[in-house]
Amino acid sequence: MMLPLRKNIAEMTGYVPGFQPEESGWIKLNTNENPYPPSPKVVEAITAEIANGGENLRKYPDAGSKEARRVAAELYGVDPSWVVMANGSDELLNNLIRAFADAGDEIGYVHPSYSYYATLAEIQGAKIRTFGLTDDFRIADFPERYEGKIFFLTSPNAPLGFGFDNEYIAELAERCAGILVVDEAYVDFTNVSAMELVKKYENIVVTRTLSKSYSLAGMRLGLAVAHPEVIESLDKIRDHYHLDRLALVAATAALQDQNYLQTTVARICETRDWFSAELRKLGYCVKPSQTNYIFAEPSDADGKQVYDALFAGKILVRYFSDPLLTHGIRISIGTRDEMEQTLAVITETG
Ligand SMILES: Cc1ncc(COP(=O)(O)O)c(C=O)c1O
User: Is the pLDDT assigned to residue 350 strictly greater than 80?
Assistant: First the structure.
């Protein structure tokens, strides 16, 4: 049957998320999940929400996510009108494109970074322009005035792990005629954030996820902070009940438990720094990472061989077939024990 599909949907391939093995026994270091459980307060909040035989589940959730927004706003020092919650930060990236880039309009992003921006642009029928990186991690050939509707800046960068400084981000905001989205999915693993710039630049949108540092990938939670006019547009086009009751109480409890966040983040960063140093001793090039993963380059620049050796040992990491990235692998940071096992296989591989 000939489906009456839009041409761009018929022609696109669709995004392929990181592999999730069904059987147990794998050490999973391929999708930057957190190796520690979420805050116990999250579990308490979810348990309370399903008490009395799930009585609360009968009713729709709060369409405005008011409590979660209030807590996020307090955390970031803004009014709740500057915050929107989301069903994962992917939902925000999607809605930003839907709100700001019409079919035929251009969006831009750094290559390599998060390739889902391209998939979302393809769905919308927007044009895609990518920019490379210079050796000192600046955007190559970025125009004095970038006229695209949206520029996505992943900071810290995925998969390379370095972050852009605020002075540079402010300069980019001034050079962007449209919206500058700073995708801070991994920012809790560093201490530089563009959040303060939102107040000064009306075209900056900072997106965050609770999937990584808060260990809630399974709940699908994200948020954006931006000027209220941007937030209003995002509110207008989102599904009204995009967050269910369990996600809402989980978000509120997680954001409120900053002590737990700091403790687990510190453990991951400590393991990351130890693991990076060990790989360097083996001759790997490992750039300093501001995230919960590292991009590791073996001396023979053959990322696939290391990926295969780890896969044979039931350790999943991420190998990208993108020619810019085949010389290395991205390894998410797990527990110290998981990383010791990973190091043992890499050492054997030679
Ligand atoms: C750079 C970047 N942005 C956004 C996301 C999406 O995160 P979420 O789970 O909140 O949709 C990811 C997930 O891997 C990511 O790496």
Answer: no
